[in-house]
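Quick illustration for those who missed Monday's session on complexes.
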Amino acid sequence: MPDQKTAKEGLKFRESVDRMVDHAIEIMNLDDGIGEALKSCASVLQVSFPVEIDGKPEIFTGWRATHSEHRLPSKGGIRFAPVVDQDEVEALAALMTYKCAIVDVPFGGSKGGLVLDPTKYKRHQLEAITRRFARELIGKGFLSPAQNVPAPDMGTGPREMGWIADTYRQLFPDDINCMAAITGKPVEHGGIRGRNEATGRGIQYAVRELFRHPEEVERAGLRGGLDGKRVIVQGLGNVGYHVAHFLTTEDGARVTGVIERDGAVLNPDGLNVDAVRSHIRETGGVKDFPGATFEPDGSAVLEHDCDILIPAALEGVIHENNAPRVKANLIVEGANGPVTYEADSILQDRGIPVMPDAYCNAGGVTVSYFEWLRNLNHVRFGRVEKRFHEARGNQIIRAIEEATDTTVPASLRSQIAKGADEFDLVRSGLDDTMRLAFQEILSARERYEGARDYRMAAFIVAIEKIARSYRDIGY
Ligand code: NAD
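Prediction with nicotinamide-adenine-dinucleotide bound:
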């Protein structure tokens, strides 16, 4: 893929993350060696194992990196992709450490990857490969409810998480907390409502929070609310689809471009995101989507005019070569590491704000934290108190009606007398998390003169918290 190649000519992903951390440490004037401690990866496992595919053994290679253990368990997704390496997994594990700290999730950072193109295998083959990878991780101490808890990432989803949870359960049937060994499971198998949409939902909440600050909207050269804003999304997978779907159906934004593997589709009046997704599912790509212009060079569309650009597919797609031509007013990093270190400073000089991955795609790990808590509590959120709140709401309505001799309108009645279910509580907890984290980022930007941008401010928020923890408990 040309994007990847160009990005790899620059700094490696890991170096890119380290440079950002170095910069934050310099701004914070931390000189007690904490930087070196922060940047080192605690442990990395590489495994190679055979699985029988169509009658012949095929060898698969994967990694799991644990970047930090200052809080346990360490947390981070597992990706299945044709191109994965140790450098990438370590960089992503480091990002998880910062991400958890930014959104106050009490976990260390970890990440896993397996070199595998999931589109090339049948369901039963994928199941065999996933279960074998899980056994390798479990056997080597890289997967357990207390120490290392994976989640979905690129190329994996609830189905794979379900297989991994079941593998763990079979190996440890006496572990009453076995379901907490992995998050992002199907709801019927110990998952939590709202996890599948969580990363995209969190990005929506992050963007909404920015739009609650008119001075930040102005900084991006924009005005007003989200209504009518033109959005281009790269990657209509789990993250890209959900954020595009919610921004269009709930906030009135227009998705004017969708970039996928085979090219991009454009419509200045807005694309129907659900219809584009169905088209991708049916045909394997965006080409020939009715009512839209097709552009075979998808990466060129990253440079198209729009209000908000959401790269939500893979890392390194905005690099030093194309950053000078990006026309978006605001970049929202849905994927991990889509803007390289070099591109970041070019965009900063050009006054294009970037909402960083470590903050805006943290919705996934936030709801994974809720799922882990749910699994340890062995009860779904809202189960105990839902009817109590419903009854309390009805009492309030009766009191208002009796005191005022009026009738509360039906629309308000149903809202007041609604007991929150798991979906409501998860969304509310996620919304609160994303709002507070953005406010902390703004506050860090105020406190440190050198932190001009959201990314630096977000890293500062994370490093402050992690450094405090390291100093309190030792390295
Ligand atoms: P996914 O596999 O569900 O979706 C990725 C999408 O990108 C697919 O639609 C794929 O066709 C498309 N794509 C792949 N290569 C492309 C290319 N060269 N150009 C355009 N489109 C391309 O993956 P996902 O879970 O949505 O993850 C996407 C990114 O978000 C990754 O960087 C991942 O690390 C990050 N992320 C995911 C989560 C999560 O909860 N799933 C959480 C945080 C961060």
